[in-house]
From TrEMBL:
This is 17 kDa surface antigen. It comes from the Bacteria. It comes from Roseovarius gaetbuli.
Length: 91
């Protein structure tokens, strides 16, 4: 069962690549939904408690939003190591 859930989590992350040609708002919504689903499925696969499942879903939604916005702008944020960040084209 855990292997099936891990496969589902991986598939939900890969679907973000299908966001080409979407509006920025639609891309963000898809990122939030896909990230939250991936976080929840991963927490379920690891046998987490209900509180950790909620935290994993919220963290996944945040990560999905960042990925969706970075793919929309084609810029990524990079840390300088001193607590500041800069943006540059994604690799």
């Amino acid at each position: 069962m855990r292997i099936l859930m891990m496969i589902a989590a991986g598939a939900s992350v890969l679907t973000l690549g299908g966001c080409e040609g979407m509006s920025p708002e639609s891309r963000t919504v898809a990122g939030v939904a896909g990230g939250a689903a991936a976080g929840l499925i991963t927490a379920e696969a690891l046998g987490a408690s209900n509180e950790w499942r909620l935290i994993a879903a919220l963290a996944g939604a945040a990560a999905g939003t960042v990925v969706a916005q970075n793919t929309a702008t084609e810029n990524c944020a990079y840390s300088r190591g001193d607590g500041t960040y800069y943006t540059a084209p994604c690799p």
